[in-house]
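Q: What does the predicted 3D structure of Carbohydrate ABC transporter permease look like?
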Amino acid sequence: MSTAGRTRGVAVREALTAYGLLAPALLGVLAFLVVPIIMLVVLSFAQWDVLSPVEFVGLRNWEWALQSGTMWHSFGVTALFVALVVPVQIAAGLLLAVLLVRNLPGSAVLRTVLVLPWVSAPVVLGIVWRWLLEYGGVADTLAGTHLGLLSDERLALPTVAFVQAWTQIGYVSLFFMSGLTNIPNEIVEAARIDGATEGRIFWRIKLPLLTPTTFFVLVTGVIAAFQTFDLVYTLSPAGGPSGSTDLIAARIYQQAVPLSNIGQASVLALILFALLVVVTLVQNAYFSRRANYDR
């Protein structure tokens, strides 16, 4: 066999080995991502309550979604929820990361405590926080009056947004800690020698070098906030007072399970999916021109 033939044979074997190793992951993506999306698209044109046969109804579900005031209300509430959650968790996570990288006394214990809410079951956290914040709960007892944190339509959404941000702060701080520790000391020391203050070093050197980390936690934070369901549904069920906590993920659940309208739920899920894709692409376009990956 010629040298070219042997080289081609080695390349084919390496390719087959690579695809063989990738096969389990590719099958997982196909089974749990591609197929469900295809099913959602098909069911969005159908009327189905799980028990009866699928009945295709054309664009009726899409017309309902576009004309539904409930859907637009849920998306509006979700957008406000995301706007409340994401900036708080990023700012608090960055602040904690700056403090923790200094290895102050108790930093190791604090890191563990910060991660616990993120790894805990959201349903359990929702139950505990509801016990603390509901009418006559611990918060009302300590304050000596009814605060209405979950029963007042003006306070319910900020309250559940605070709880959601609290669960994510430890997750965000870990990534910012990793980014801060990877910044070369030579750059920081050179700035100090030039007379830069610690504040100037942070804003002019460290923060710009954290742009890739900021992009990652922002994208994942926005996606997670838009998809929030179990924590808020447990903490403030039935959409809260006057629908003030009626997030889109909870609306999808309401359409799919209690109302048994899989077609309309599929439409809402596809709209949410498309919205997240657009938001992610916009964020990527913004940060791609500003990200600095040189460390």
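A (community wiki): The structure tokens above were generated from the sequence. The radius of gyration is 24 Å. The longest strand covers residues 46-47.
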